[in-house]
Amino acid sequence: xxxxxxxxxxxxxxxxxxxxxxxxxxxxxxxxxxxxxxxxxxxxxxxxxxxxxxxxxxxxxxxxxxxxxxxxxxxxxxxxxxxxxxxxxxxxxxxxxxxxxxxxxxxxxxxxxxxxxxxxxxxxxxxxxxxxxxxxxxxxxxxxxxxxxxxxxxxxxxxxxxxxxxxxxxxxxxxxxxxxxxxxxxxxxxxxxxxxxxxxxxxxxxxxxxxxxxxxxxxxxxxxxxxxxxxxxxxxxxxxxxxxxxxxxxxxxxxxxxxxxxxxxxxxxxxxxxxxxxxxxxxxxxxxxxxxxxxxxxxxxxxxxxxxx
Length: 309
Prior knowledge:
Largest sheet: none
Helix content: over 70%
Order of helices and strands: HHHHHHHHHHHHHH
Radius of gyration: 20 Å
Number of strands: 0
Oligomer: single chain
Low-confidence stretches: none
Shape: globular
Strand content: under 5%
């Protein structure tokens, strides 16, 4: 039943998932995080929620445009379900904005495979990554993904590498100009200190650490399975999957580096994760087993979430 709904791309699928994510977001805020909003705080929260909901459309667009999966809605389904698995990340507004801008960067980065307007796409991807670093400075590590894309697609053109320098200069000039207008000229020095909060990382909380460990191991296994099934596919898709796998690794590293009592950036790994999950689902040949996996993926996280309330 569930597979029949999400095996095709339908407007009703977006409605179902967006309504669920809308309700789930407020459930997390009021019941799990025990947040209370004044009228002043409510408006920014609605804006954050709008960015979160719009991210679902970006995920679907990137997946379909680059043919990362088949023609189905499994990607946006699992993108939504991962919030149920990691509900605490919805309490981190910086993670939501960082994830949003990184999705925009991935959209441009993956489109380099067409070998058209490469320098413009490199500039756009680099700029989106720089913007995402306004919320988490360690997001700049995603520039390694841009370097990897250049090295893979057109490494001999020196101008491609110089674009990254122009991105940095452009970003700093624009950001500094805005900071002067906002009377916050020292934001760059204070924000981009790349400090690591060891006190937040090493007192390991067994439940969150267990979830992250299982999440990382599961995705590595699914990535391995994906590459095996793609061995018969064209080189182009294998290269894209390598970039996606690299983005997942960078995401794990960034999530660890920004960890604190108020920060939880695991959300930035959701996009590559759903690509691996959906590619595995599409490899399942038995309809009954696929249905069982889908039902388990929906029911188990919801039960775990409800027991934590």
